[in-house]
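>> received
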Amino acid sequence: MAQRISKRKEAVKHLLVLFVLFFAFFPLYLMVIISFKDNQQFTANPFLPDAISSWKWHNWAKAWTTVRFYITNSIVVSMAAVGICLTIATLTAYVLARYRFPGREIIYYLIIGTMFLPGTAATLVTLFELVRSMGMVNKLYALVLIGAVGGQVTCIFILRQFIEDIPKELFESAQIDGAGHFQQIRHIVLPMSGSVMGVLAIMQFIGNWNNLMLPLILMRDDALLTVPVGLMRLEGEYVKEWGELMAGYTISSIPLIILFLFTMKLFVRGLSAGAIKG
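>> returned
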Protein backbone atom coordinates (compact mmCIF):
# COMPACT_ATOMS: atom_id res chain seq x y z
CA MET A 1 0.00 0.00 0.00
CA ALA A 2 2.79 2.37 0.96
CA GLN A 3 4.57 1.54 -2.28
CA ARG A 4 1.47 2.46 -4.33
CA ILE A 5 1.18 5.80 -2.53
CA SER A 6 4.86 6.45 -3.17
CA LYS A 7 4.43 5.70 -6.90
CA ARG A 8 1.44 8.04 -7.05
CA LYS A 9 3.45 10.81 -5.43
CA GLU A 10 6.29 10.27 -7.87
CA ALA A 11 3.82 10.34 -10.77
CA VAL A 12 2.35 13.61 -9.51
CA LYS A 13 5.84 15.10 -9.17
CA HIS A 14 6.75 14.07 -12.71
CA LEU A 15 3.51 15.53 -14.05
CA LEU A 16 4.20 18.84 -12.31
CA VAL A 17 7.73 18.93 -13.70
CA LEU A 18 6.46 18.17 -17.20
CA PHE A 19 3.79 20.85 -16.81
CA VAL A 20 6.40 23.46 -15.89
CA LEU A 21 8.78 22.34 -18.64
CA PHE A 22 6.01 22.55 -21.23
CA PHE A 23 5.28 26.19 -20.47
CA ALA A 24 9.01 26.94 -20.27
CA PHE A 25 9.94 25.45 -23.65
CA PHE A 26 6.74 25.89 -25.66
CA PRO A 27 7.38 29.63 -26.32
CA LEU A 28 10.91 28.76 -27.45
CA TYR A 29 9.52 26.08 -29.76
CA LEU A 30 7.01 28.54 -31.26
CA MET A 31 9.71 31.17 -31.70
CA VAL A 32 11.89 28.80 -33.73
CA ILE A 33 8.98 27.41 -35.78
CA ILE A 34 7.58 30.83 -36.68
CA SER A 35 11.04 32.10 -37.66
CA PHE A 36 10.87 29.89 -40.79
CA LYS A 37 7.45 31.15 -41.91
CA ASP A 38 6.11 34.17 -43.71
CA ASN A 39 2.96 35.93 -42.53
CA GLN A 40 0.69 33.80 -44.73
CA GLN A 41 2.15 30.54 -43.44
CA PHE A 42 2.03 31.84 -39.86
CA THR A 43 -1.66 32.68 -40.16
CA ALA A 44 -2.51 29.32 -41.74
CA ASN A 45 -0.43 27.13 -39.41
CA PRO A 46 1.07 28.92 -36.38
CA PHE A 47 1.85 25.88 -34.19
CA LEU A 48 3.32 23.19 -36.45
CA PRO A 49 6.37 23.31 -38.75
CA ASP A 50 5.86 23.42 -42.50
CA ALA A 51 7.76 21.33 -45.03
CA ILE A 52 11.48 22.07 -45.08
CA SER A 53 11.27 23.05 -48.75
CA SER A 54 8.98 25.94 -47.82
CA TRP A 55 11.10 27.33 -45.00
CA LYS A 56 11.93 31.02 -45.37
CA TRP A 57 15.66 31.14 -44.73
CA HIS A 58 15.81 34.79 -45.75
CA ASN A 59 14.10 35.61 -42.44
CA TRP A 60 17.25 34.53 -40.64
CA ALA A 61 19.50 36.35 -43.11
CA LYS A 62 17.68 39.64 -42.61
CA ALA A 63 17.44 39.14 -38.85
CA TRP A 64 21.18 38.43 -38.59
CA THR A 65 22.01 41.50 -40.68
CA THR A 66 19.85 43.59 -38.35
CA VAL A 67 20.85 42.30 -34.91
CA ARG A 68 24.52 41.23 -35.22
CA PHE A 69 25.90 44.64 -34.22
CA TYR A 70 23.31 44.98 -31.47
CA ILE A 71 24.42 41.62 -30.04
CA THR A 72 28.03 42.82 -30.01
CA ASN A 73 27.04 45.99 -28.16
CA SER A 74 25.02 44.01 -25.63
CA ILE A 75 27.87 41.58 -24.97
CA VAL A 76 30.37 44.42 -24.47
CA VAL A 77 28.04 46.41 -22.19
CA SER A 78 26.91 43.40 -20.14
CA MET A 79 30.37 41.92 -19.63
CA ALA A 80 31.93 45.27 -18.72
CA ALA A 81 29.11 46.11 -16.30
CA VAL A 82 29.36 42.69 -14.64
CA GLY A 83 33.14 42.96 -14.29
CA ILE A 84 33.02 46.43 -12.70
CA CYS A 85 30.07 45.52 -10.49
CA LEU A 86 31.64 42.35 -9.07
CA THR A 87 35.05 43.97 -8.60
CA ILE A 88 33.70 46.87 -6.52
CA ALA A 89 31.17 44.66 -4.69
CA THR A 90 33.86 42.13 -3.74
CA LEU A 91 36.18 44.80 -2.35
CA THR A 92 33.35 46.47 -0.44
CA ALA A 93 31.99 43.21 0.94
CA TYR A 94 35.51 42.17 2.00
CA VAL A 95 36.02 45.36 4.00
CA LEU A 96 32.57 45.24 5.61
CA ALA A 97 32.93 41.56 6.51
CA ARG A 98 36.54 41.41 7.71
CA TYR A 99 37.21 44.63 9.57
CA ARG A 100 35.68 46.36 12.58
CA PHE A 101 35.74 50.15 12.43
CA PRO A 102 33.46 52.94 13.72
CA GLY A 103 30.37 53.34 11.61
CA ARG A 104 30.77 50.02 9.80
CA GLU A 105 27.20 48.86 10.47
CA ILE A 106 25.82 52.29 9.62
CA ILE A 107 27.58 52.26 6.27
CA TYR A 108 26.38 48.72 5.59
CA TYR A 109 22.74 49.47 6.38
CA LEU A 110 22.86 52.69 4.38
CA ILE A 111 24.02 50.65 1.39
CA ILE A 112 21.28 48.07 1.95
CA GLY A 113 18.73 50.86 2.40
CA THR A 114 19.29 51.96 -1.19
CA MET A 115 17.51 48.75 -2.24
CA PHE A 116 14.26 50.45 -1.19
CA LEU A 117 14.80 53.47 -3.43
CA PRO A 118 12.68 53.73 -6.61
CA GLY A 119 13.95 51.88 -9.65
CA THR A 120 14.96 53.17 -13.06
CA ALA A 121 11.42 53.79 -14.30
CA ALA A 122 10.58 56.06 -11.35
CA THR A 123 13.82 58.08 -11.62
CA LEU A 124 14.16 58.08 -15.38
CA VAL A 125 13.90 61.85 -15.86
CA THR A 126 16.37 62.59 -13.06
CA LEU A 127 18.78 59.94 -14.34
CA PHE A 128 18.60 61.26 -17.88
CA GLU A 129 19.29 64.84 -16.72
CA LEU A 130 22.28 63.60 -14.72
CA VAL A 131 23.67 61.64 -17.66
CA ARG A 132 23.10 64.56 -20.03
CA SER A 133 24.82 67.02 -17.70
CA MET A 134 27.86 64.71 -17.62
CA GLY A 135 27.99 64.53 -21.42
CA MET A 136 27.38 60.79 -21.51
CA VAL A 137 24.32 60.66 -23.77
CA ASN A 138 24.86 58.40 -26.78
CA LYS A 139 27.88 56.76 -25.11
CA LEU A 140 28.08 53.00 -24.48
CA TYR A 141 30.11 53.53 -21.32
CA ALA A 142 27.08 55.28 -19.81
CA LEU A 143 25.18 51.99 -20.00
CA VAL A 144 28.19 50.20 -18.52
CA LEU A 145 28.47 52.53 -15.54
CA ILE A 146 24.74 52.58 -14.80
CA GLY A 147 24.52 48.81 -15.16
CA ALA A 148 27.50 48.31 -12.86
CA VAL A 149 26.14 50.63 -10.18
CA GLY A 150 22.63 49.21 -10.35
CA GLY A 151 23.62 45.70 -9.31
CA GLN A 152 26.16 46.42 -6.59
CA VAL A 153 23.83 46.49 -3.58
CA THR A 154 22.56 42.94 -4.11
CA CYS A 155 26.09 41.67 -4.72
CA ILE A 156 27.44 43.36 -1.60
CA PHE A 157 24.59 42.00 0.50
CA ILE A 158 25.16 38.40 -0.62
CA LEU A 159 28.97 38.43 -0.75
CA ARG A 160 29.31 39.91 2.72
CA GLN A 161 27.42 36.97 4.22
CA PHE A 162 29.69 34.46 2.48
CA ILE A 163 32.91 36.24 3.37
CA GLU A 164 31.85 36.43 7.02
CA ASP A 165 31.37 32.64 7.02
CA ILE A 166 34.92 31.99 5.81
CA PRO A 167 37.01 30.83 8.82
CA LYS A 168 39.09 33.68 10.23
CA GLU A 169 41.99 31.29 10.71
CA LEU A 170 42.53 31.24 6.94
CA PHE A 171 42.98 35.01 6.82
CA GLU A 172 45.20 34.98 9.92
CA SER A 173 47.40 32.29 8.39
CA ALA A 174 47.65 34.28 5.17
CA GLN A 175 48.65 37.40 7.12
CA ILE A 176 51.36 35.47 8.97
CA ASP A 177 52.71 34.33 5.59
CA GLY A 178 52.86 37.95 4.49
CA ALA A 179 49.79 38.05 2.24
CA GLY A 180 48.25 41.48 1.73
CA HIS A 181 44.59 42.30 1.35
CA PHE A 182 44.48 41.76 -2.40
CA GLN A 183 46.34 38.48 -2.08
CA GLN A 184 43.85 37.33 0.55
CA ILE A 185 40.98 38.22 -1.77
CA ARG A 186 42.64 36.43 -4.68
CA HIS A 187 43.68 33.25 -2.88
CA ILE A 188 40.94 32.90 -0.23
CA VAL A 189 37.82 34.91 -1.01
CA LEU A 190 37.56 34.32 -4.74
CA PRO A 191 38.08 30.52 -4.68
CA MET A 192 35.70 29.97 -1.77
CA SER A 193 33.01 32.34 -3.08
CA GLY A 194 33.46 31.47 -6.75
CA SER A 195 30.16 29.62 -7.16
CA VAL A 196 28.17 32.45 -5.57
CA MET A 197 29.98 35.05 -7.64
CA GLY A 198 29.17 32.97 -10.71
CA VAL A 199 25.46 33.14 -9.88
CA LEU A 200 25.67 36.89 -9.29
CA ALA A 201 27.54 37.34 -12.57
CA ILE A 202 24.88 35.41 -14.50
CA MET A 203 22.05 37.37 -12.88
CA GLN A 204 23.74 40.71 -13.53
CA PHE A 205 24.60 39.74 -17.11
CA ILE A 206 21.00 38.80 -17.88
CA GLY A 207 19.71 41.96 -16.22
CA ASN A 208 21.98 44.17 -18.32
CA TRP A 209 21.30 42.15 -21.46
CA ASN A 210 17.52 42.61 -21.10
CA ASN A 211 17.71 46.31 -20.25
CA LEU A 212 15.39 48.15 -22.63
CA MET A 213 14.60 51.49 -21.06
CA LEU A 214 18.07 53.03 -20.69
CA PRO A 215 19.42 52.20 -24.17
CA LEU A 216 16.15 53.42 -25.67
CA ILE A 217 16.45 56.78 -23.89
CA LEU A 218 20.21 57.36 -23.93
CA MET A 219 21.36 56.00 -27.28
CA ARG A 220 20.87 58.04 -30.43
CA ASP A 221 22.98 56.29 -33.08
CA ASP A 222 21.69 53.05 -34.53
CA ALA A 223 25.18 51.53 -34.31
CA LEU A 224 25.15 51.93 -30.50
CA LEU A 225 21.83 50.23 -29.77
CA THR A 226 21.64 47.04 -27.76
CA VAL A 227 19.60 43.92 -28.50
CA PRO A 228 16.26 44.81 -26.83
CA VAL A 229 16.09 48.15 -28.65
CA GLY A 230 17.49 46.73 -31.87
CA LEU A 231 14.80 44.05 -32.01
CA MET A 232 12.21 46.81 -32.11
CA ARG A 233 13.66 47.79 -35.48
CA LEU A 234 12.45 44.47 -36.86
CA GLU A 235 8.86 45.41 -36.06
CA GLY A 236 7.34 47.08 -39.11
CA GLU A 237 5.55 50.36 -38.66
CA TYR A 238 2.33 49.08 -40.26
CA VAL A 239 2.87 45.35 -40.89
CA LYS A 240 4.82 42.97 -38.67
CA GLU A 241 6.86 40.32 -40.43
CA TRP A 242 6.52 37.65 -37.77
CA GLY A 243 9.08 35.33 -39.33
CA GLU A 244 11.84 37.95 -39.36
CA LEU A 245 10.87 39.09 -35.88
CA MET A 246 11.01 35.58 -34.40
CA ALA A 247 14.29 34.87 -36.20
CA GLY A 248 15.77 37.97 -34.59
CA TYR A 249 14.52 36.87 -31.17
CA THR A 250 15.99 33.39 -31.69
CA ILE A 251 19.40 34.70 -32.76
CA SER A 252 19.44 37.12 -29.83
CA SER A 253 18.66 34.36 -27.35
CA ILE A 254 21.53 32.13 -28.51
CA PRO A 255 24.24 33.93 -26.43
CA LEU A 256 22.15 33.54 -23.27
CA ILE A 257 21.49 29.88 -24.00
CA ILE A 258 25.21 29.27 -24.54
CA LEU A 259 26.00 31.17 -21.33
CA PHE A 260 23.59 29.06 -19.30
CA LEU A 261 24.73 25.77 -20.83
CA PHE A 262 28.38 26.45 -19.95
CA THR A 263 27.62 27.82 -16.47
CA MET A 264 24.73 25.57 -15.47
CA LYS A 265 26.77 23.51 -12.99
CA LEU A 266 28.21 26.67 -11.47
CA PHE A 267 24.73 28.19 -11.22
CA VAL A 268 23.27 25.14 -9.47
CA ARG A 269 26.27 24.87 -7.14
CA GLY A 270 25.94 28.53 -6.19
CA LEU A 271 22.24 28.22 -5.47
CA SER A 272 22.87 25.10 -3.39
CA ALA A 273 25.57 26.89 -1.40
CA GLY A 274 23.20 29.77 -0.76
CA ALA A 275 20.49 27.41 0.43
CA ILE A 276 22.87 25.67 2.84
CA LYS A 277 24.25 28.89 4.29
CA GLY A 278 20.79 30.44 4.55
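>> The first helix runs from residue 2 to 34.
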